[in-house]
Amino acid sequence: MALISRWKLNDGAASTTVLDSAGSNPGVSQQNTNLLSVFGPIENRAISFNGTSDDVTVSDSADYDFSTAFSGVSWINPTAVGDNDGIITRYLTAGDKREWAFIITGTSGTEAKLAVLLGNSGGTDISQEITDSVVISNELWYLVGFTYDAGTIIIYVNAVPIASTTTGTHVVTLNNEAVDLTIGLFNGATYFDGVQDDVRIYDSVLSASDMNQILKEGAIKMVRGRYDGSGLPKDRIINR
């Protein structure tokens, strides 16, 4: 597997630059990163988004022109789950620049689930994959990710593949458009409210074993109680 980009989100500097430690595609945050820096699973620091105006924008790059296979991963800890909150996306309805989006759909309770949206080669038809059983709750850490393989989507939560339902047109070949990659923002309008950490893009399909290795790299263990594969309470974890 090839890691194309990795934004650890631990910059914490008097600058809006968000470094790409694996590639050459730095992001730009809406505020200096030292103003957004909070505790996170990776190297102790992460970025807190306010849910109304904060995001990280990565300029369009041919590195993300995937046609048949890629994966996306991020740690998230929502403060307030909202409908269509962006996690990682390359998606704009304006100009039919719909490539792909990894979001939270629904608001709270049983409705707040993970979803992957895909645009076809013309950017007009949309396929949507939504998790069936896992509900995303506030104030919990999750390692979330997805893989795309010629139309087959698998969504992972804490390295476990989750059953999901597909709606809309089945997208076998992804659309490639001149559209920025965004972290914490979907369709230029809906923002993630909470903390994100260690966002990764791969140009291959990760396995459950790969996802589990990333989970372990978070160096997380329970302080009390037993980790059961659901959420990881932020007041019950420490870095090893």
What would CATH call the architecture of the domain at 60-218? Sandwich
* Element order: H for helix, E for strand: EEEEEEEEEEEEEEEEEEEHEEE
Q: Based on the structure, what is the oligomeric state of the protein chains?
A: single chain
Task: Give the DSSP E fraction (strand runs of 2 or more residues).
Answer: over 45%
CATH topology name of the domain at 60-218: Jelly Rolls
In terms of structural class, how would the helical and strand content be classed?
Answer: mainly beta
Biggest sheet: strands, sense, closure?
Answer: 9 strands, antiparallel
| Approximate helicity band | under 10%
Radius of gyration from CA coordinates: 16 Å
Q: Helical segment tally?
A: 1
User: Per the principal axes of the C-alpha atoms, what is the gross shape?
Assistant: globular
Low-pLDDT residue spans: 221-230, 235-240
Task: Tell me what you see in this structure.
The relative contact order is 0.24. The longest helix has 10 residues. Helix content is 4%, strand content 47%. The protein is globular. It has a domain of 159 residues: Jelly Rolls (Sandwich). By secondary structure, the protein is mainly beta. β10 and β11 form a beta hairpin.
Write the layout of secondary structure elements.
Layout (H helix, E strand, L loop, with lengths): L2 E5 L9 E2 L8 E3 L7 E4 L3 E7 L5 E3 L10 E10 L6 E8 L4 E9 L7 E7 L6 E6 L8 E10 L2 E6 L2 E3 L1 E5 L12 E3 L1 E2 L3 E2 L1 E10 L5 H10 L2 E3 L9 E2 L3 E3 L1
Antiparallel strand pairs: 1-19, 2-3, 3-6, 4-5, 5-19, 6-16, 7-12, 7-19, 8-9, 8-16, 9-10, 10-11, 11-15, 12-13, 12-21, 13-14, 17-18, 20-22
